[in-house]
Amino acid sequence: MDFLDIPTVLKASALFNGMAALAWLTLAQLLRIAPRAGRLMAAAHLARVVSQGCGDCMAGWPLPLRQALSEFALLACVLLLLLAVRRMLRSRQRPRDIAWIGGVGGVALGAGLISGVALAPPLVSAAAVAALGSMAVREMWRGIGDRLSRPVAIGITLPFAALALMALVHGAELLLVPGWEARIREDQLPSAARAVLWFVVTAAITLSLIALMIWRLIMRIQHLMHRDPLTLALNRRAFAQALADAQAQLQRGRGFALVMMDIDHFKQVNDQHGHPAGDAALQHCVRVWQAGLRDVDRLGRLGGEEFCALLPLAVPDDLAAPAAVAERLRASLAAQPLDWQGTALRLTASFGVALPAVGDGQGEVGMARADAELYRAKADGRNRVCVATHLDGRTAPP
Ligand SMILES: Nc1nc2c(ncn2[C@@H]2O[C@H](COP(=O)(O)OP(=O)(O)OP(=O)(O)O)[C@@H](O)[C@H]2O)c(=O)[nH]1
């Protein structure tokens, strides 16, 4: 690479990392987009600048000081990067493992620098970067592997795999290729090709994190579009879409049931305890019901205190299964009063269960039948489940 000299590459890399840190800070502080992950990424980029000797602004500094700063900054950079990945993926994993690797790596680095064995610090750094890089690959894959298309997930994960691999290869060459110790002692710069490769990997990692952030934003927007803001159940429009999709599946033999539910005497909660208590009651009911439903079930808020659950069925015509689910939901709500400012508010709800009709594009027939059963449950005294008596919803609506 005759057209590129190493100091130029290092300066370009320092400039890129400085600007990337500024961009992440702007996103985090001014726009409040992924603020914690953004701050961690900004710190990681600044650590990267230090690890590369800030372009060549440390040129006049004593070699041991430069080496110590560079190795510790590289370790810090990769630690911060992994923390940022976890924040971006909203991982609940505690950072204890990262703290351990950071602590052990830091002590080993310190010992290596003090020992005067020239190969020790870069070897420790390479091992730590390889370990942290592979952790990032594993976590990235766990977080997005089955939520994004395969090529996109591979593309986003690849730079972290490249980081781990390059650190491994560097560790191996330190051990196996003669002459490295002398090069480190004489403070020889890496080749231009090597410097460019590291620069490209750093830039690719930044792009991966940006892609992750955009994906998170899209997920957030979709969440806001599809969810009722108070209870986080599906909103009416999203539920209608889920129902239309389920109706389409019904043609292919995949059955489902509708469970319409309505909180009993909800107006009294508002009237006696105030609107905030009513809001808390709605949230409480959804919490209790969601806990009793499976991941494949969809719970939607149709409006006010009326909800509907769509339950995919293993056996298409089996009304007994959704009836049992509705009974369980009824019983669990009745058994778990809401604690409202020290007062136990006993809440109950009425349920109507029905099967959908084939060929009913938007599912209106099934909804009407479940609604009729709900009406019956209210009329029969509330806090009960009523199930459509005519089981064959496919051919003859009642
Ligand atoms: N706090 C709160 N109240 C709401 C919300 N949406 C609707 N409501 C109230 O829900 C109440 C519904 O009352 P009704 O339709 O009379 O039903 P109910 O009192 O539950 O009586 P039954 O259904 O017959 O048992 C009304 O007072 C609405 O103002 C909301 O988002 N928050």
UniProtKB/TrEMBL annotation:
InterPro entries xrefs: Diguanylate_Cyclase, GGDEF_dom, Nucleotide_cyclase, Rev_trsase/Diguanyl_cyclase
Domain GGDEF: residue ranges: 254-390
EC nos: 2.7.7.65
SUPFAM superfamilies in alphabetical order: Nucleotide cyclase
Segments crossing the lipid bilayer: 12-31, 68-86, 98-117, 153-176, 196-218
Substrates-to-products reaction catalysed: 2 GTP = 3',3'-c-di-GMP + 2 diphosphate
Keywords: Membrane, Transmembrane, Transmembrane helix
Keyword Transmembrane: yes
Name of the protein described by the UniProt record: diguanylate cyclase
Organism encoding this protein: Pelomonas dachongensis
